[in-house]
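[job 0417] fold request received: TraB/GumN family protein
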Amino acid sequence: MNKTALITLILITILSCNKEAATEIIVIGTLHKPVPNFNSEILFNILEDEKPDFVLCELDSSFFTSDFKYKNSTTSNEGIASEKYAQKYPMTHLRPYEFEGRNEYRINTGSRPTDGFTTKLIDSLNEADLLSASEVKIYKKYKTLLEPLIVLASKSPEHFNNPTTDSICAERQYYQYKMLTKITNNRPEFETRFHTKPNGEKISYRDGFKLAGDFWDLRNQTMAKNIMGISKQNQGKKIVVLCGFMHRYYILSELKKLTKNKNIILKEYYEN
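[job 0417] inference complete; emitting structure tokens
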């Protein structure tokens, strides 16, 4: 071997050794409460198969101690499974990634409970045959989109952790937060009914429902950014993200944009 070839081989070896391992992010859509087809034991077994270095939970920092242990016992599938996994594998890190103060934010802005009041009022208007033909079409599509998701959520977790289900979730949430506003923006019932916020200010159902839609975007975008923040600080690690499966499509969509041209791999938990 001549001198030039030898130097080239040495450089290639050095560069390959110095190349950082890719970070893996696995987003697992969950059901928060135990049911026969999905419970904490099923989720624990998935974690056991994946052996993640980090498990990210759909909670904010208020649920954790300063050293990232759960402050109180938890009854959710994610809480039970992740705590059991971390106890068995003490080197595992649990981390929150939720929008900080989510519930307080919604209550203080008035998006909650006006979001629930609004959808109930739409239901009532439909039952009374007061919606226009175009409004009925929107309403029925919104209701219909939930039906296949209920069926999929009753099956094994692979059925609600795939691109097809993600696309149904995306369309359903689009109808909830974008298409239903075509009804609330055009009908006076939503402009003339009010909720009083904690600060004493009144907010119409129309404005509150719009804020709920805005917060759906803000919350999911914030969660994706928080996930990226943790991944940047822990390059080369395997990170499992646990989220309600209705959030999965949005988080994955944001992560695909945020991880572009980065040494990060997005995987499904059932992929080799």
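[job 0417] notes: Residues 59 and 98 are 5 Å apart (CA to CA). The chain has two domains: 21-101+220-267, 110-216.
[job 0417] exit 0
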